[in-house]
Amino acid sequence: MTKRLVAHLRYAALAVPNFEEERDFFTNYWGLTEVHAEEGVSYLAAEGSTEPFILRLRDDEKRIDLVGFAVDGRDDLQALADKLHTEGVQFVHEPQELTGFGGGYGFRVFDGDGRVLEFSTGYQTRTARKIREREPIPAKLSHVVFNSANLNDTAQWYVDHLDFSISDSLIRPDGGEMMHFMRCNPNHHSVAVAMGPHHSLHHLSFEMRGIEEWMRGAGKILRSGARMIWGPGRHNAGDNTFAYFLSPAGNTIEYTTELSVLDEENWEPHRLDISQLSSQDQWGTAQAMSEIIARESFNDIDKGLFVAPPA
Question: Where is the signal peptide (predicted)?
Fold first, then answer.
């Protein structure tokens, strides 16, 4: 198998109009740690991750600012930049020293729908600690899911330009695709793309230590007053647990655990019919998926497409 140049998912950066409320929710309830703050910007880390931060919040009109990925060294980073230039991908900026919190060396591009992606290496890491038994806080950022009005074109962009692979897909009974789960390493998915009425954030997913911590975390968030929109249950694609909530800004956020790690040499993608209960929830413990539940994660139209964030 040819080596991929994108190593792993690092962080997501969101702009939110209720910045202080959102920061309070993620630090006091969701379980992230603020490690750096500037005027109107907060950098939040997961205690179990060596990433300097896994979520950046910025005070502004609601949008996805960017999603960051790691690359293993400057040689790979330059090779990726050269590849994307050859393929006509639109750059936000060329490889350079990064001046934001955590530093590093990297570049940014627009994906096919206009979302900003950052690729970096050589950034500062933090000392992770082992999440304690029954401690209901995230260990790391698991995956990011986008809504796209051009599902297959969006997924193909990640396959063609970033060498992502489709691990599994959700389909309608007539065979039409509804969602693609995509990987850049043996983890079942770091990015997924869902069919939606417009381009927007579908959800951010945060990995918990295990089932016990995931359940305790879900209970903790329910007691915070946040609304669970789907769960608790266990997906088929990825075999991971799920509990989806709405943040104060109206973004869908998930506690998950036990996402599959694949034997990539022998893995064959599945096409899972969404009309079958086990395709969405193996346990059958969550509400049946419906248009009403799906609509909760359509989110607001992303107004940041093909517009570079100011930070």
Answer: none
Check residue 187 and report its DSSP letter. Answer: B
> How much of the chain exceeds pLDDT 70, in percent?
100
pLDDT at 301 (0 to 100) = 97
Sign of the dihedral defined by the CA atoms of residues 236, 240, 246, 247, in that order: negative
| C-alpha to C-alpha distance for 262 and 167, rounded to whole angstroms | 9
In 46-162 the beta strands, taken as DSSP E runs, fall at 55-59, 63-70, 91-97, 105-110, 116-121, 140-148
Same topology between domain 8-121 and domain 140-296: yes
Average pLDDT of the segment spanning 222-236:
97
Please give the Cα distance from 90 to 108 (Å, whole number).
Answer: 9
Whether the predicted pLDDT of 211 surpasses 70: yes
Pick from 205, 232, 236, 233: which is nearest to 220 by CA? 232
Q: 140-296 belongs to which homologous superfamily?
A: 2,3-Dihydroxybiphenyl 1,2-Dioxygenase, domain 1 (3.10.180.10)
Tokens of 304: 């940041």
Side chain identity, residue 113: D
Separation of alpha carbons 174 and 296, rounded Å:
24
Distance CA 172, CA 179 (A): 10
The pTM assigned to this predicted structure is 0.97
> What CA–CA distances, in Å, run from 233 to 164, 190, 285, 287?
27, 20, 5, 9
- β-pair partners for 58: 15, 41
> How far apart are alpha carbons 156 and 227 in whole angstroms?
34
> Taking a C-beta distance cutoff of 8 angstroms, is the pair 209, 46 a contact?
no
Q: In what order do the strands lie in the sheet with 252-256?
A: 228-234, 241-246, 252-256, 200-207, 140-148, 191-195, 177-183, 165-171, 270-273
Q: If pLDDT is split at 50, 70 and 90, which confidence band does 1 have?
A: low
